[in-house]
Design goal:
The chain is an alpha+beta fold and about 110 residues long. It has helices at about 5, 15-25, 30; strands spanning about 35-40, 45-50, 55-60, 70, 80, 85, 90-95, 100-105. The radius of gyration is 14 Å and the shape is globular.
Length: about 110
């Protein structure tokens, strides 16, 4: 896709990177927090946590072509910094194929 096409496409790679940059600029945890790799049972899921003081962001990524669920060590609430979607309870997060979430604790 050309740059002109990507500018108007909310799901384009260009706009994905714009959302990532914006999330990092707004999050102290992503800018300066200590990073901890989280151990998961599936080789096609990766996760890490960055925290600074009371704020933390847990990054979850599904590196496979199929839907997968992750059971977090701690309960939510959290909000996805890339989509604005809120998660209010529980510890299970389901990721679509190739999906990533940047969950900021609330």
């Amino acid at each position: 896709d050309s740059l002109e096409e990507q500018v108007d496409d909310a799901s384009s790679l260009l706009n994905w990177y714009r959302r990532l940059i914006s999330a990092r600029e707004k999050s102290v945890a992503l800018k300066t927090g200590a990073q901890e790799t989280l151990m998961l049972e599936s080789e096609s899921l990766i996760a890490w946590k960055r925290g600074s003081g009371a704020k933390s962001v847990t990054v979850l990524a599904n590196l496979s072509g199929r839907k997968q669920s992750i059971l977090l060590d701690q309960a939510l609430p959290a909000v996805d910094l890339l989509t604005g979607e809120s998660f209010s309870s529980g510890r299970k997060i389901t990721l679509a194929a190739w999906q990533a979430r940047y969950l900021e604790s609330r």
